[in-house]
């Protein structure tokens, strides 16, 4: 298996109490799959992504990429955060070239940067500063920068969460085109059911307290998904039911805790 998440657990010490964020997470992801991780706030979605990125160590278990354990960040994994995290003193071109500076000569790095800026439709903005771009355009620069490293896995932590609905919809279409062109393995964290259905081959629905996998759903709706509204609605209802059950469980636990304290 290309990416193997095996018995991953994560605990944090909080005010002398141990809080379990992730419990027995097992996932196998094939090369080229687009997999969304969907769930309520606090279910450990971003923590799991951070473990795959090598930014956070699991309390137990392991993550393997092509059979090799992930213990630290590496160029084989590109990360796109909710905020673009661009260097404000650099141009768009320089931001995309930055991770290539030790791997390529300047001319080659510049050509590579332009290749991916063209892919995200920003060829006319190479000399602009980040502050001159809209939020959606800045996020496209961040995606181009991650892709320029030619990672085996693209990790995306709610990359469109801070954008307006119209911009999000446009970037969904662009990201799907990029994925169809590059066939990169993508692990995508989101709160949005519609976003996950539009983009994903699989949707991993997570529950909370502790974070667990409720269901791993293979999306069998042909692309583009907008052409199959009835199938989309049926899947939305299924996922909403899973999440509503999880919300009801949390509310019940909170009421019981309040009654006993």
TrEMBL record:
The EC class name is translocase
Reaction equations catalysed: a quaternary ammonium(out) + ATP + H2O = a quaternary ammonium(in) + ADP + phosphate + H(+)
Q: Is Hydrolase set as a keyword in this record?
A: no
Q: Pfam families attached here?
A: ABC_tran
E.C. designation(s): 7.6.2.9
Every ABC transporter domain range: 3-233
Q: Which GO terms describe its molecular function?
A: ABC-type quaternary ammonium compound transporting activity; ATP binding; ATP hydrolysis activity
- Taxonomically, the superkingdom here is Bacteria
Q: Which residues form a coiled coil?
A: none
Mind telling me which InterPro entries this protein's record contains?
AAA+_ATPase, ABC_transporter-like_ATP-bd, ABC_transporter-like_CS, ABC_transporter_ATP-bind, P-loop_NTPase
In terms of SMART domains, this protein maps to: AAA (SM00382)
Q: Which UniProt keywords apply?
A: ATP-binding, Nucleotide-binding, Translocase, Transport
> Tell me, how does this one assemble?
The complex is composed of two ATP-binding proteins (OpuCA), two transmembrane proteins (OpuCB and OpuCD) and a solute-binding protein (OpuCC).
Descriptive protein name: Carnitine transport ATP-binding protein OpuCA
Give the organism, scientific name: Neobacillus rhizophilus
| Phylogenetic lineage | Bacteria, Bacillati, Bacillota, Bacilli, Bacillales
